[in-house]
């Protein structure tokens, strides 16, 4: 498939929102270039300029399919909607050069250590793993999820925090992408996982990652939307973005076992009031909230379950 580079030059204050917009439209990775401006007449088109401190260039890629013109129009409309705050913002697109976009992310994927519990690293990193760490080998390929984006990072931290209370249980991962959250949960002590994603490119990557870690017998990945999943789960995690989270929230309640835990991420801080209203209307209560670089993740339980907050470790 042919891909197009998408560059958004935006004020630093809205760079997270620009990243979210790209991801919602299907960008499988996003890179931030701070103190950088666009110069479409140059190659490369990025110019590092300390005097351009207010600007950040957000770089992603979208597939060249029938929806590309619609997606580019949506991005331009989003920039226009910034009003006076967006004066000087710009959109630049071009076909991806012959080198494959879906492998270029590798230069940005370095081993990631989360506290004293979990090490996430690519297959080409083969150094000995410290004895106190659990290792997850991950090859994201064209699927979203390496653990470096704040929304994924926050989910991983919550999984680590709640792991002791859910040893031997099952987790449902909605929007599983590369499988990172499902597989991390298994490495942290969950016994079984089910992951679901609408992206057809995600499932082969997730299955490959399960095999890389010897977890293929303990996880099941499905293509499609979450309603096709049946049964109840002690833990559900969904790292997507605001719209689908709000839409699915009422239907996730009956999918939780009594006292079950729901972890939500992919929420920009400016969207949190909308998310919290939906949480209350769906009958959930917030147990814990974590924030990083303008992104928020929430740990929820059904308000009527009467389960006291679990201390975060």
Description:
This protein has 313 residues and is of the alpha/beta class. The chain has 2 domains: 3-104, Alpha-Beta Plaits; 109-305, Rossmann fold (3-Layer(aba) Sandwich). It has 8 helices and 16 strands. The chain has helices spanning 15-25, 68-80, 101-104, 150-162, 180-188, 202-212, 242-252, 272-281; strands at 3-11, 31-34, 36-38, 46-48, 55-63, 90-95, 112-114, 118-121, 134-137, 170-174, 192-197, 219-223, 233-239, 256-268, 284-292, 295-302. It has a 7-stranded mixed β-sheet with strand order 12-11-10-13-14-16-15, sandwiched between helices. The chain has a 4-stranded antiparallel β-sheet with strand order 2-5-1-6, with helices on one face. The protein is globular, with a radius of gyration of 20 Å. The N and C termini lie far apart (44 Å). 40% of the residues are buried. The mean pLDDT is 86.
Radius of gyration: 20 Å
CATH topology (fold) name of the largest domain: Rossmann fold
Low-confidence stretches: none
**Within the largest sheet, what's the order of strands?**
12-11-10-13-14-16-15
Number of structurally distinct domains: 2
Can you give keywords for this protein?
313 residues; alpha/beta; Alpha-Beta Plaits; Rossmann fold; 2 domains; seven-stranded mixed beta sheet; four-stranded antiparallel beta sheet; 8 helices; 26% helix; 31% strand; globular
